[in-house]
């Protein structure tokens, strides 16, 4: 941080010189959150890979016929495939409901999670949210064996647990993240979600191929339970209550946030719900998630049915786009704060530019991916570039809640993520309905829809977003510019 920036936050140069990033309490929080969201997304997406192996061959086709345009992709695997995993006769519609059921629970706890986090802190909510999801993941094989209704019920319960996690984390960062470090800290913590996807997809594919799909759920469920104990031991809701934070760091964080936090006990619901900047985030979040969830849940199916990769290759290639996204999230967080701190770019300018890049770029490459035929390398490259560019949104609309209303960031994220969960509920179902025959033309339609929604959301955010703390978000109604 520059001396000028430090003085503008009423923190002296002596304090800043002692407030290092390495081993600091705020960056330790970011690292623990990284592993938490790593497991959160591993628990969420492993079913996408395992489901391919859980379904009886050709069960997803029902009465329809798949018209294979592309020849089967050659494999170098010489190890015999394990075939001990139980298979279920679930057709395409059933699979769509199984994949989408998670979000029916997920949407319910978004706003309550944000509200509770603002009252009791995010530590317990985030911890028990991941713990509960881990326990139900361990029960997934039993539920599948009992019947599809039980499996859907377990996935709904997992969604209930995960629904509180993002609002809880946003609420914690409202007390922990200095304004000029928000992009860095939040990008580190939320990048865990992408890395969880990167590791979970190929590892789940390997487990399914060489072992049995049930171990996919046992492995990640167990790791989630172990993480819970470290989180409860090492984390505190606020700097004031942290036992191992240095005095200099505590004062630095509290001083940097003193004009941005509200002391109001009641939530200003009416101003929140009538705020145009809030609705700009809602529209952007909804639009981005339509593409994100469509690919997250159905990319393994696209790799298998259209590009015809086997299970092991499927897992690795499905994970490649999210590795690119993880890199982009980390780098864009550093770049965003650099532009705001040393280049004097306004917060709103950075948020809008990063959102436009992170939504229009992916839309272009996603549409292109539907028109390259059986060029395997180009298809994987386009999908990877599309998902990678989406990483810019983490330093765009994704943390804009903290810019406009730090004290209510958890509640705002609960609101925006409630709308943004709808694509996860209906997107996979619609995509499955549109791709009954798994033809290239059907998948082009899926990509067109996702790209169009993405572009609309980017333009809406660019027109109506704000980078300033809103007057209703501070008790003194002091209008503060970042």
TrEMBL record:
InterPro entries hit by this protein: MFS, MFS_dom, MFS_Na/Anion_cotransporter, MFS_trans_sf
GO cellular component terms, semicolon-separated: apical plasma membrane; basolateral plasma membrane; lysosomal membrane; synaptic vesicle membrane
Domain Major facilitator superfamily (MFS) profile: 29-469
Keywords of this entry: Cell membrane, Cytoplasmic vesicle, Glycoprotein, Lysosome, Membrane, Symport, Synapse, Transmembrane, Transmembrane helix, Transport
Pfam families for the chain: MFS_1 (PF07690)
GO biological process: carboxylic acid transport; monoatomic anion transport
UniProt keyword annotation of Electron transport present: no
Compartment annotation: Basolateral cell membrane; Cytoplasmic vesicle, Secretory vesicle membrane; Cytoplasmic vesicle, Secretory vesicle, Synaptic vesicle membrane; Lysosome membrane
Membrane topology annotation: Multi-pass membrane protein
Cell membrane recorded as keyword: yes
Top-level taxon of the source organism: Eukaryota
TM segment ranges: 27-47, 97-117, 124-144, 185-207, 213-234, 272-296, 316-336, 348-372, 378-399, 411-434, 446-465
Family annotation (PROSITE patterns): MFS (PS50850)
CDD domains: MFS_SLC17A5
Main location: membrane
Enzymatic reactions: L-aspartate(out) = L-aspartate(in); L-glutamate(out) = L-glutamate(in); N-acetyl-L-aspartyl-L-glutamate(out) = N-acetyl-L-aspartyl-L-glutamate(in); N-acetylneuraminate(in) + H(+)(in) = N-acetylneuraminate(out) + H(+)(out)
Function: Receptor for CM101, a polysaccharide produced by group B Streptococcus with antipathoangiogenic properties.
Protein name as it appears in the record: Sialin
Species, as recorded: Coturnix japonica
């Amino acid at each position: 941080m520059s001396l000028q920036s430090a003085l503008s936050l009423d923190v002296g140069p002596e304090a800043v010189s002692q407030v290092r990033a390495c081993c600091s309490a705020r960056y330790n929080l970011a690292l623990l959150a990284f592993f938490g969201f790593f497991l959160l997304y591993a628990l969420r997406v492993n079913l996408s890979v395992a489901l391919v192996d859980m379904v009886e061959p050709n069960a997803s086709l029902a009465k329809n016929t798949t018209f294979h345009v592309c020849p089967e992709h050659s494999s170098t695997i010489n190890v015999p495939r394990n075939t001990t995993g139980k298979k279920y006769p679930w057709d395409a519609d059933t699979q769509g409901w199984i994949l989408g059921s998670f979000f029916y629970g997920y949407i319910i706890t978004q706003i309550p999670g944000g509200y509770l986090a603002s009252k009791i802190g995010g530590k317990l909510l985030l911890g028990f949210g991941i713990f509960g999801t881990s326990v139900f993941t361990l029960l997934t094989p039993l539920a599948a064996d009992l019947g599809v209704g039980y499996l859907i019920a377990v996935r709904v319960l997992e969604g209930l647990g995960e629904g509180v996690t993002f609002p809880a984390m946003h609420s914690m960062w409202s007390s922990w993240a200095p304004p000029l470090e928000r992009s860095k800290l939040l990008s580190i913590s939320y990048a865990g979600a992408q890395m969880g996807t990167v590791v979970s997809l190929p590892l789940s594919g390997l487990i399914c191929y060489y072992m049995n799909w049930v171990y996919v759920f046992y492995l990640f469920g167990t790791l989630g339970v172990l993480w819970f104990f470290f989180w409860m031991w090492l984390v505190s809701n606020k700097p004031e209550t942290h036992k191992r934070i240095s005095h200099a760091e505590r004062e630095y964080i509290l001083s940097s946030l003193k004009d941005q936090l509200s002391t109001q006990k009641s939530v200003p619901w009416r101003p929140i719900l009538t705020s145009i900047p809030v609705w700009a985030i809602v529209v952007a979040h909804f639009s981005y998630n339509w593409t994100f969830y469509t690919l997250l849940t159905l990319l393994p199916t696209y790799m298998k049915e259209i590009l015809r990769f086997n299970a092991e290759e499927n897992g690795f290639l499905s994970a490649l786009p999210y590795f690119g996204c993880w890199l982009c999230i980390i780098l864009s967080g550093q770049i965003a704060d650099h532009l705001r701190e040393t280049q004097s770019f306004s917060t709103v300018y950075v948020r809008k530019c990063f959102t436009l890049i992170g939504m229009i770029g992916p839309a272009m490459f996603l549409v292109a991916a539907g028109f390259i035929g059986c060029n395997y390398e180009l298809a994987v490259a386009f999908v990877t570039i599309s998902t990678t560019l989406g990483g810019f949104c983490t330093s765009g609309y994704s943390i804009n809640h903290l810019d406009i209303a730090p004290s209510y960031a958890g509640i705002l994220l609960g609101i925006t993520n409630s709308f943004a969960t709808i694509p996860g509920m209906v997107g996979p179902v619609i995509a499955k309905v549109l791709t009954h025959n798994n033809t290239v033309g059907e998948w082009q339609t899926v990509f067109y829809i996702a790209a169009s929604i993405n572009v609309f959301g980017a333009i809406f955010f660019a027109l109506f977003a704000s980078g300033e703390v809103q007057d209703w978000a501070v008790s003194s109604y002091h209008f503060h510019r970042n």
